[in-house]
Amino acid sequence: MRWGMVVDLSKCVRCYACIAACRIEHFLPEGMNWPRLMALETEGDPPSVATYSLRCNQCQDAPCVEVCPTGATYQRPDGIVAIDQDKCVGCRYCVIACPYQNRTFLSKDKARGFFPESGPTPFEEAGKKLYPHQTGTTEKCNFCAERIDAGLAKGLKPGIDRDATPACVNTCPARALTFGDLDDPDSEVSKLIREYDGFQLHPEYDTNPSVYFIDHKIGQPDKPRKKDTKSRRETAGSAAEK
Amino acid sequence: MEAHEWMINYTRQTEWIDRRGIFLWIAFYAGGLGGGLYLVSLFFNSLAGMFVSWLIIAVIKGGAHIIYLGKPWRFWRIVTRPQSSWLARGIIFVFGFILFGAVQLALSYWAPGAAEMAFKVLAGVAALAVTIYTGFVLNTVKAVPFWNSTLLPLLFVLCGVLGGFGLAVVIALSGGNINLEAAEAGSRWLLIVNALLIAVYLWTAARRAPTGRLSVLEQMRGHLAPYFWGGIVVLGIFIPLIIGLVGEFGAALHSGVLIAGVVCEIIGGLALRYCVLKAGAYKPLVARQPAS
């Protein structure tokens, strides 16, 4: 079993709902975002905008796991790269080693609170109990591992049952995010990757990310546009250097 | 719009140089300088030099590392997994040097003999490791092509030993047990080798990948140009070299001039580490692409 995600680039509408859902789910401090949106103008007249919904890729050969001097960053049997906040010393080697820049060091200035003058809000008070964050450590997306674990314990299926599926996937109104088991050839994610020629970011780093991207178009027949997908894969990967 | 601009272009690493990252820069340089000085002091058998190098590593390097950590009181966890990374191994080398160096200094002062020699060897190996490991910490980061060079550890060692020879000159002038002419000569030759190695390092980095070339250009023509040309080239190489050549072929130099040359060398070493850390950049996550 290896949990993975497919992001459909053509469906994302840049509504930031995935980011909001993650913030609520994990009570993220003010200066912290686990998923992020990256938008860039494409060339052309008029230029259009391509959007990438990004988060930790949960790499199978994760550089952050390799370099962590304390073992705080580790890989679970289901492929999720997790962090034990109690072991992290805040050396930030993992932040440096991640080629995707998906890790954030939670410094004190990022956790001042939303309204420092007025004290913590009820939401922040609840967060301290339900999902405490430690300043001085590193954080990142964990595919909502706590939801997956709780859902599996109830016999639910991640990617299908909402209670066992990451919050961003549940929330996405455009259905641009799909979650499931990459090792299961019949899972939705495996089908999408197979049918639409899914690609990973920067495959040249040999990190084997568990987040794939596809770009089939809304309202078009469910046929991959091979020419487009190829050009996007090239530009997203090693062609980034050209 | 900050989220929109993130990682579209080449992105400079910030965690290990900006804000509290400054402490890591100091720690990296102090490790090289302290280790280099210890090796030079071993060569000259100077107890004063060994003591100064021990202070540099134990106090400045160790202190800067601890201050930099997000959770300083958990620092002991780093030494429990030497198999994980060069950072863990490096901190073990630092602790090893502090321990062996302290015993060696005590033995040299109170009970010289065979045991002292054994601890000199142990502390010497640890000092070399402290000098070299920061190069491996950086060159194993595949994501930053500018650092991903086998020359980096060698450059850091040479830079550290060069600084060590510089401090040895100061110790010799202060009455320490060091031959001033030999320390000056060592400093001069290493300066030339170091300058050549810096040039080769930049040349190979520029050829390795477009991101590496960008890092080199950033140093030579971009925001880092004042640090590179002023710090590394003028203060770190040119002025000490002129002083060295005048000392070699001209009149005897005033000790103040020699000390000024050493200060310039140290500023050059600091500037070199600063530029290497500051210029480290990641390639964009996605390249700009034509409209479909």
Quick rundown:
Chain A has 242 residues and is α+β, with helices and mostly antiparallel strands. Helix content of chain A is 26%, strand content 16%. Chain B has helices at 2-5, 21-44, 47-68, 86-110, 114-139, 151-173, 180-208, 210-220, 225-249, 255-279; strands at residues 11-12, 281-282.
Descriptive notes:
The complex is a heterodimer of chains A (242) and B (292). With 242 residues, chain A is of the alpha+beta class. Chain A has one domain (3-241): Alpha-Beta Plaits, CATH 3.30.70. Helix content of chain A is 26%, strand content 16%. Chain A contains eight helices and nine strands. Chain A has helices at residues 17-26, 63-67, 93-97, 122-130, 145-153, 167-171, 188-195, 226-236, and strands at residues 3-8, 36-41, 49-54, 73-75, 81-83, 104-106, 137-139, 177-181, 211-214. In chain A, the strands form four sheets. Chain A has a three-stranded mixed β-sheet. Chain A has a two-stranded antiparallel ribbon with strand order 2-3. In chain A, strands 4-5 form a two-stranded antiparallel sheet. Chain A is globular. Chain A starts with a strand and ends in a 6-residue tail after the last helix. In chain A, 47% of the residues are buried. Chain B is mostly helical. Chain B has a single domain, classed as Formate dehydrogenase/DMSO reductase domain (Formate dehydrogenase/DMSO reductase fold, Up-down Bundle). Chain B contains ten helices and two strands; from the N terminus they run H-E-H-H-H-H-H-H-H-H-H-E. Chain B has a two-stranded antiparallel sheet with strand order 1-2. The radius of gyration of chain B is 20 Å and the shape is globular. Chain B starts with a helix and ends in a 10-residue tail after the last strand. The relative contact order of chain B is 0.14. The mean pLDDT of chain B is 93. The chains are: A alpha+beta (242), B mainly alpha (292). Chains A and B meet through strand 2, strand 3, helix 2, helix 3 and helix 8 of A and helix 4 of B.
